[in-house]
């Protein structure tokens, strides 16, 4: 969408470090979004919050804690009418979603609005399973990651680059992720700890494995689980 093409969704994490929502919270939110009209209004609200965070409100957001509830941010900073918030948001969003979850919330809503998840468009050659040693290496390294940032950039890479047979499956996954993201290219937690030997063929399985470790806390995370 427009937020991706303009780079605003990526820039958000430089203003407020992003984290994942626990799967149980994501599931509850998706169940509570009960009409297409509500989904559209909610997507617009989150997109407006992201634009403000990286645009006009960027300076203010830098000084804000990512643990600020989205509900408070919308009503006190964006000056959204509380009655309109109640008609747009859901109980789970009001209770659980914080500024550090805006990226995760927007991606979950994007999946809900699409006929199929964008991840399901990743071609089969990039969906090969990990062997037990590779799974163990990822699980061992995961506590050192900024998991929210890694999952976001890995997802973006897959949905932009791996939906066609453009790249040899045996190419190095770490190297391609570094090329695709300036943040990862400069991040010591990624360069120093992302397991060697993973290939593009393992991209989808790597994402799923990291998402499944919902209890882990990365170096830049705040304790949230996988999206």
From TrEMBL:
Molecular function (Gene Ontology), one example: ATP hydrolysis activity
Top-level taxon: Eukaryota
InterPro entries: RNF213
Identification of the protein by name: Uncharacterized protein
Source organism of this protein record: Rhizochromulina marina
